[in-house]
From TrEMBL:
Record organism: Candidatus Haliotispira prima
Keywords: Oxidoreductase
Entry protein name: Isocitrate/isopropylmalate family dehydrogenase
Domain Isopropylmalate dehydrogenase-like span(s) in chain numbering: 45-385
Membership in a protein family: Belongs to the isocitrate and isopropylmalate dehydrogenases family.
Amino acid sequence: MTGKLLNIEQAVASFRKLLEQQQQRSAQIKSGSRLPDFATLPCVRIALAGGDGIGPVITQYAQRVLEYLLKDEIAQGKAELTEITGLTLENRLAQNCSVPETTLRQIKSCHVLLKGPTTTPQAGQGIANLESANVTLRRELDLYANVRPVNVPDKGIDWCFFRENTEGAYVLGSQGVLLEGREAGSELAFDFAVTTRPGVERIARSAMNYAKNNGKKRVSIVTKANIIKTGDGNFLQICKEIAGREFPELEIDDWYIDIMAANLVNEDLRRKFQVFILPNLYGDILTDEAAEIQGGLGTAGSANIGDRYAMFEPVHGSAPRLIEEGRLAYVDPRSVLRACSMMLAHIGRGDKGNILDRAVTAASTLHPITGFENGAKTEDFIAELMKGITRAFGSAQAP
């Protein structure tokens, strides 16, 4: 546990400080910042961070693919790849910091970050119980939109989830309060969830603009507003206000998180859904479920988008069990490759992102990866992927 052991007076003072900080953050959101125009940048700087567990392995494969796809641009100085080494668990523990300041400065010197999974320590492991590196990066880079597409054509599924990324139950997840009891130890534990109007407005606009610009008609808002009446109720109300005022052409509906979790496995209903808007915690849970329907967490990539920075990563975690069981040669790189494709689209190289997506799909058919010896080795999968990319470019135009 990381909460502070306080008495009532101290808890009230601590909560007041949190309220003031969140009021200030809400005001900063309103001021905003501008996304770079990647079409006019003389050089797009891409940071690569392997993270922990299987992260360095799959990120190295992604780097190999990126260097091939962007070979000409790298040679001409129009693209630059920078390796970031400071996000390993060992370094973060040594610095006693979820994201060391020098590492954060390196990341901020680039335009986008392609990141492998990072391990989040937890109570009882005998090491510092650091905040999630992902939570820290999303907060520090203000990456408010977590975008996770899920596509299963043969099941009629074409979903895109917009998870609010900087508020909800996660923003103050390491700043809860433990209230002292009459005896030694804590008697009550409190955590806090935060919802701000500007924070909800920008995730709502992101999702609805995506729907409008991509021929989608239906946007579903997912909360638990019948029970979490204040925070979730405010989230739902603001989303509906934005829809009614700015996107009257869209069909808007709302669902409770428990019912939507059931809907995703209901074959009669799930084909009808297109775009989702969710608070932070519900988005984390529901997108993992959706990824399993697509074929597993190893198949899903995600984007974390802000007004200035963007981070792309696999949906899954660092998977230390794969290493412990000696299965590293069979690790599935598709999640980071899908994230890589999303990153290419974000920086204005969507044609190359599409080539990568098609090559991933084709290689998955020829060399199915299971993570076990009954599936393809990662090297064989990547070799087939590179052949597919080369064929797509044509021998005379290969990068």
